[in-house]
Amino acid sequence: MKNHKTYRLTVSSPMGDQVSELHLSEDGKELSGAMTKGADTAKIENGKVDGDTLSWQMPIERPMPMRLHFSGTRTKEIITGKVKFGMFAKGTFEAIRHR
User: Fold this and answer.
1) Tell me, which fold does domain 3-97 have in CATH?
2) How far apart are CA 99 and CA 90, in angstroms?
């Protein structure tokens, strides 16, 4: 059975904070969904759930083509963790669930 949730995602990057909407669907140990910002949408790939630990990858095209690697921990309505921007840099993220 799938569990759908929507979050306000803030990624702290070398270019400053980037805010978007994150849609997550859990089905057992599988995680799917997408991130949307304006007209841009990036789909989650290789999403995994292990208890309260979530991880996924996401290819993006802007501001430049790269693959983002997310890993975080869920506590009630919030997911916090780290994100790797391709091979270039690292940052953090916070996703707060919409009510």
Assistant:
1) Porin (2.40.160)
2) 29
- CA–CA separation, 19 vs 94, rounded Å? 10
Domain borders along the chain are: 3-97
Digit-coded pLDDT (tens) for 30-57: 999 999 998 889 999 999 999 999 999 9
- Provide the whole-model pTM: 0.91
Separation between Cα atoms, residue 71 and residue 99, nearest integer Å: 23
**Terminal C-alpha separation, the chain:** 21
Instruction: Enter the tokens of residue 82.
Output: 């780290």
Q: Output the CA torsion sign for 70, 19, 89, 66.
A: positive
